[in-house]
Amino acid sequence: MAANKDAIAQHVEHERISSDDSLRKDEEQHSTVVQDWTPEEERKLVWKIDFRVFPMLCIVFGLSLLDRTNISAAYIAGLATDLQLQIGSRYSIALLIFFIGYCLFELPSNYIIRKIGARWWLSFLIVMWGGCVLGMGFVHDWKILTVLRALLGVFEAGLFPGSIYIIGCWYRQFETGRRISIFYMASLLSSGFGPIFAYALSLIRVGGPGSMYRAGWRWIFIVEGVATIVAGIVSPWFLVEFPERVKFLSKRERHIALERVRIDKSSKAVVHPSMKEFTVMLCDWKLVLYGLQYFICASSVYSLAFFKPIILRQGMGFSYAKAQLLSSPPYVFTIIMSLIMAYISDKLRMRWPILCSQALVGIVGLLVILYAKPPGVRYFGLYLAIFGCQANIPGTLAYGNNQTGRNEKKGVVAAAMISFGAAGGIAGSTIFRSQDAPLYLPGMWSTICMLILYICITLSLSMHFKRQNRLADEAQAAGREYILEKTPGFRYAP
User: Fold this and answer.
1) What are the residue ranges of CATH 1.20.1250.20 in the chain?
2) Got the DSSP string for 256-315?
3) CA-to-CA distance for 492 and 494, rounded, in angstroms?
4) Quick check: 416 pLDDT over 70?
5) Which secondary-structure segment (H or E) carries 200?
6) What's the whole-number mean pLDDT along residues 230-245?
7) Higher local confidence (pLDDT), 426 or 132
8) How far apart are CA 291 and CA 126, in angstroms?
9) Where do transmembrane segments lie in this chain (predicted)?
10) Whole-structure pTM over 0.85, yes or no?
């Protein structure tokens, strides 16, 4: 009997070792990608993908930013008087309630998008939030306006993380930085021209005295809402799908598109995670730090946006018209410098030096604004501060995306980070209090301290990733197994 038990035990152990060897060989097979295409083929394919992925995504993202911020233009065009938004905290409630739905529905949206498909899901969201904006043009009660703002946040929640998810699935690790920057910089263009467009719409008058369509603020919502709905209707023909679903590539091009991404990510077949797997991915401790990074970026951007008009009008004594005119050049500078720095980051194949240096530039800019005396010097500080804060938004999204080996997890990372950003929007809009005027020292120093914390987090994470990469390389050289992010062959991009 004892001999039989020993024989059975040996047989079981032999089967286990054989199974482990088979699994290891399977992982090695999946982690090894044979590059059966030329650099010229890949270069042409990347250009083709660029022109298919970005145009419509940039357009609808620009529309989303116009639609969420046009309430401020409508406010000064008569909305405040007609709906009595100036009473108590009505306007603040209408502003902040947007972020609640925006924060809560980003993760569910990125769970759904892979199952339904990007074209149809995003098109549905675009049409729905366009309907919300259109509805705002016909409201007569601030409560209805607030409900529509809440729904606007729910439907807009899926676009930004979904877009980052799509971009991350199409490009290799050190191709994403400048592309996410290009995508995000479209928002700065819409932010710059949005107020001018809204002003032109507010001049529209239809009907005689007493007609509700005589109110110019209604046309801001009506025209922009209709434009968004039209964009949503045509989106299925212009938005891009995930690589495994597209039809605009030939069989050869689809093969190259999928395999070239596997070189960095070593992803296997496309996986649609279950809700349990989705929840497990959320429990990764690194997601909290990525989210905190993005929270700091978002709160800094929002807080600076609220403080900028005060700097130009009260701090420097410019008129309203001049203050509006001088608001644009810092953003032009930011767009140019952000794209240059993103290109350098991809070219050098490093993230943390660029992210930390941009945060440091933001700190210097805020200190110049706070303590310099000549208006010209303070205005120069505004250039530095806006660039330092805005440039790290796309940079941080690319950073979190690059540390994820599995495509199915990229959607979780993007949605989690942008959900933290929604909370940052709430924080950024509240840290500058009227009783702290004119210097707003608590708000300014809160922003400076958060940027210092950003540098510390980014540096610590990157040093951890560099160490993990080194250990994985040493283990591979010694013939041992050391898998990062549960993805054979994957390496972090610190």
Assistant:
1) 39-264, 281-494
2) HHHHHHHHHH---S-----HHHHHHHHT-HHHHHHHHHHHHHHHHHHHHHHHHHHIIIII
3) 6
4) yes
5) helix 176-202
6) 92
7) 132
8) 25
9) 53-77, 89-108, 120-139, 151-171, 183-204, 216-240, 287-307, 327-345, 352-372, 378-400, 412-432, 444-461
10) no
Residues in contact with 443: Cβ distance below 8 Å, sequence separation at least 6, in sequence order: 303, 307, 431, 432, 433, 436
- Per the prediction, the chain carries an average pLDDT of 83
Q: How far apart are CA 69 and CA 306, in angstroms?
A: 13
pLDDT tens digits, residue range 341-377? Answer: 999 998 888 899 999 999 999 999 999 988 888 888 8
Contact criterion met (CB below 8 Å) for 312 and 326: yes
- Predicted pLDDT of residue 39: 87
pLDDT band at 18 (very low <50, low <70, confident <90, very high): very low
Residues 399, 291 contacting (CB under 8 angstroms): no
Residue 67: closest CA among 201, 206, 236: 201
Give CATH for domain 39-264: 1.20.1250.20
Which has the closest alpha carbon to 155: 68, 71, 95? 68
- Percent residues over pLDDT 70 in the chain: 85
Residue in this structure with the two tokens 């040493």, named with its chain if needed: 474
CB burial class (10 A; 0-12, 13-18, 19+) of residue 430? middle
* CATH class, 281-494 region: mainly alpha
The tokens 């990372």 sit on which residue?
413
> In 139-175, which residue ranges form alpha helices assigned H by DSSP?
142-156, 159-170
The torsion angles phi and psi of 484, rounded to 5 degrees, stand at: -95, 140
Task: Give me the helix-helix angle, 275-282 and 407-428, nearest 10°.
Answer: 60
Q: So what's the pLDDT on residue 99?
A: 85
The alpha carbon dihedral of 373, 376, 378, 380 has a sign of negative
Which residues share a beta bridge with 157?
A: none
Sequence letter at residue 239 = L
Q: Is the pLDDT assigned to residue 32 strictly greater than 70?
A: no
pLDDT given for residue 33 in this prediction: 54
Q: Return the residue matching tokens 């020292």.
A: 441
Query: What gap in Å lies between CA 458 and CA 469, rounded to an integer?
Result: 16
Task: Write out the H or E segment, with its range, that includes residue 187.
Answer: helix 176-202
Rounded CA separation 13/10 (Å): 5
What is the three-class DSSP state of 320? helix
Sign, CA dihedral 212-214-220-222, equals positive
CA 439, CA 260: separation in Å to the nearest integer? 52
Bridge partners of residue 487, in order along the sequence:
484
> In a 3-state reduction of DSSP, which class is residue 239?
coil
Q: Whole-angstrom Cα distance, residue 170 to residue 248?
A: 14
Q: Are 489 and 393 in contact (CB under 8 A)?
A: no
Beta carbons of 307 and 444 less than 8 angstroms apart? yes
> What number of other Cβ atoms are within 10 A of residue 248's Cβ?
11
Cα separation, 233 vs 69, whole angstroms: 22
